[in-house]
Write a structure and sequence with these properties.
Length: 231
């Protein structure tokens, strides 16, 4: 007896699954690369390790990213640099005062960057920038410059509205950025070496090892910053 022919739906299911798997590979590779870059640093991470963690061959990785440098750049764009346009739109549409905007700035940063593995990218760059000047230049152009420009816009908006006193914006932007930088460095250096706090129920590691609450620290920094910026 002849076997019945597979239905069109059954025949097309496997190609569809393969297509979905292929479309997911860049994201899987970027996630694996982020993990390894943060864990081991740029120099010590090998593309073979990234491919193995993503469950593909090294050749497959090179189909999407032609070199380790391009892979790293893609990780930075995926997790940080590619978000500035979205943050600028949020700033442009924000209707509250400068105090509410600065609080929103810290909250969004902590939720989307500071408490995630992406925070380790900044520590990595500070550690290895001198050995990889091309990557340092890339990071400066695609992360540092737009980041400081965004903070500058927040301060300029506040000054124009009479909610922030006039100040030197070239250095004033770092008043806002410094608490963020401290948390990223602490989280990716000393925090992982300390015993966990018994009163911390957060599932965010390595933040559970911090001797203080990151949220409480940011709240204290915001309060101190606002006192200094008010007219």
């Amino acid at each position: 007896m002849p076997h019945p022919s597979p239905s069109p739906a059954a025949g097309s299911a496997e190609p569809q699954r393969r297509a979905r798997r292929k479309n997911a590979r860049p994201g899987e590779l970027l996630a694996a690369a982020l993990d390894l870059f943060v864990e081991k640093g740029y120099a010590a991470t090998r593309v073979e390790e990234v491919a193995a963690r993503a469950g593909v061959s090294k050749g497959t990785l090179f189909l999407y990213f032609p070199s380790k440098e391009e892979l790293f750049k893609a990780v930075v764009r995926e997790n940080i640099a590619g978000r500035f346009a979205e943050w600028q739109r949020e700033l442009d549409s924000f209707e509250g005062d400068s105090e509410a905007l600065l609080r929103r700035c810290y909250t969004v940063w902590w939720e989307r960057i500071g408490s995630t593995k992406a925070a380790g990218i900044t520590k990595l760059m500070c550690s290895e920038a001198r050995n990889f000047p091309a990557l340092a230049h890339f990071y400066h152009q695609e992360v540092m410059q737009p980041g400081t420009a965004l903070v500058r816009c927040i301060l300029e908006r506040g000054i124009a509205r009479g909610e922030i006193r006039p100040l030197d914006l070239d250095t004033g932007v770092y008043l806002v950025l410094s608490p963020m930088m401290f948390l990223m460095f602490w989280q990716n250096t000393m925090a992982g070496c300390l015993p966990a706090r018994t009163d911390d129920t957060s599932e965010t590691a390595p933040c559970a090892s911090m001797p203080f609450s990151p949220e409480a620290y940011l709240e204290a920094q915001i309060d101190n910053l606002l006192r200094g910026l008010r007219p």
